[in-house]
Amino acid sequence: MIERPELWYTIAGLAAGSFLLRFAFLGFVGDRPLPEWLLRHLRYTAVAVLPALIAPMVAWPAATGGSFDLPRGLAAFVTLAAGLWFRSVIISITAGAATLYLALYLLG
Amino acid sequence: MRATTPKSPLKQGIRDAAPFILVVSPFAIVFGVVATESGLSIAETLLFSVAVIAGAAQFTTLQLLNENAPAVIALLSGLAVNLRMAMYSASLTPYLGAAPLWQRALVAYLTVDQSYACSVAAYERNASWTLKERMTYFFACCLPVIPMWYLMTLAGALIGESIPESAALDFAVPITFLALIAPMMRTPAHLAAALVASLAALSLTWVPYNLGLMIAATFGMIVGAQAELILKKRGMMT
Fold first, then answer.
1. Residues 79-108 of A with CB under 8 A from B
2. Residues ≥6 apart with Cβ < 8 Å to B20
3. Helix B172-181 vs helix A45-59: angle between axes, to the nearest 10 degrees?
4. Which residues in chain B (131-190) have CB-CB distances under 8 A to chain A?
5. Quick check: helix, strand or coil at residue B238?
6. What percent of chain A clears pLDDT 90, i.e. is strictly above it?
7. Can you tell me the mean pLDDT for B73-80?
8. Do B24 and B77 belong together in one domain?
9. ipTM metric
10. Which has the least CB within 10 A, A95, B49, B143, B166?
11. pLDDT band for position B1 (cuts 50, 70, 90)
């Protein structure tokens, strides 16, 4: 059983802390110019953070207890390949989901 | 390369973010179910989602509280998972930094993986957008996603029972993000950043408090920036 009021303090702290993290640069730096070297690194934020977030989910899915799962691996591969080839998010998601369900049906 | 469509940023934002309903909804439902199973009231569960809007951090914190970890540890671990939001904030600053403070505060509250990823991709595609168009696009991306986060948390809290595992909803997150990342690989520098970040993340899962993610992302950004410098020097990238 989670104790009260610890739960409420934790939720409040997480809300305030998350807001400050999100506000940190946007709010306090604003439109002051950032140095070029920093901008150059920031251009790669999305393509670094998101793959780093996804890679372990693909390699060791929580749903299979953290061991590699062929249907999920195949689905990830097809999603990525379709996305690189067609440059379309919708086609890529559709291809990935279709692969996942087909592979789960055939291999699962 | 496809020409930029003349559609308004509002319509584009809603359309681009719409597929994420498929990700956010199951994730929010599962959070609602898990939270109520952990003894949170429906009001507490909904408040959690409205105040924080960060699925992974909410799950982390809840999980630790469930395991009777000290509240401070649960809180700090949740914040560690959300550290990437500071990177998102920095990355949005060149595009949105000139907006009024209240708008920047609202953007900060609404910065999640989906709104951030869609917006940065769109800003790169539409370099000619004005500040107002960029703001409109950002909020448009939030329209399909954020209300759904609240609503489906509530739905999950009300249902209070698990969804069949055969639905494999766990994999909605990786698939939609992979689909979003793939078209972002515009140059070898982007590809290098993504590859290094992924490999580093896989080898750093042992690092506590999810800090491996931050280290891996930093490696990826450094590699991307260095690759850009090298490619520009050789005239292979503008």
1. 79-80, 82-84, 87-90, 92-93, 96-97, 100-101, 104
2. B114, B118, B144, B145, B176
3. 150
4. 165-166, 168, 170-171, 173-185, 189-190
5. coil
6. 63
7. 85
8. yes
9. 0.85
10. B166
11. very low
Domain ranges of chain A: 1-32, 39-107
| pTM of this structure | 0.82
Distance CA B95, CA A3 (A): 43
- Nearest-CA distance from B196 to chain A in Å? 8
Domain that holds residue B152: 9-170
DSSP 8-state class, residue B184: G
Query: Which has the minimum average pLDDT: B8-17, B64-73, B227-236?
Result: B64-73
The last residue of one of the domains, among B113, B147, B170, is B170
* Mean pLDDT of the A90-103 span: 92
Domain end call among B121, B147, B170: B170
Q: How does the average pLDDT of chain B come out, rounded?
A: 89
Which of B95, B181, B210 to probe the A interface (max A CBs under 10 A)?
Answer: B181
Residues B137 and B194 in one domain: no
pLDDT 10s digits, B86-98 = 999 999 999 999 9
Per the CB < 8 Å rule, is A26 touching B48?
Answer: no
Neighbouring CB atoms inside 10 A of B161's CB total 8
Which amino acid type is present at position A51? P
pLDDT of B102 reads 97
Residue among A55, A49, A13 at smallest CA distance from B87: A49
As a whole number, mean pLDDT of residues A9-20 equals: 97
